[in-house]
User: Fold TRAP transporter small permease protein from Paracoccus solventivorans.
Amino acid sequence: MRWIDRTASVIGGLSLVVLVTIVASAVFARYVMGQPLAWTEEAAGLLMVWIVMISAIGTEARGEHLTIDIIEGFLSPKGRRALIVVVGLLSIGLLGVIAWYGWVLAEASAMRRTNILRISWFWIYLPVTLGALGVIVVTLLRMAGHRPVSAPSVLSAHVEADA
Assistant:
């Protein structure tokens, strides 16, 4: 799962750099040059959807999505394994619905274009499907026994540096 996390992190990180550059350009153009760039809002919105959905894959690969683990502490190892399978199956079901309807919406909107950039709405809805499918793959890997990628904590790295 490490390669999934790294790929999602690289794509998400590069997209974030582009997003910050676009927003900074928009602010500079509007407030310094007095000439707003009309395309920046659409581009930033499009990138934001991609960043969120691709980052969801990496977050799941690291096991960092929000969880409620109260029940897990009371279960035996077998019970925990069963819980992982049940939660995984429920997650796959929900993510499958999200992926399916994301695709339906992307296909239905493919002929529509955004107002300024004239980009097909397909590219705005596609990351919903890709993100859901990516998280399904990670969930299946976890159910098959793969452990989440251990990402070093910023807090632990800071504490170690102070020691």
Summary: Residues 40 and 85 are 43 Å apart (CA to CA).
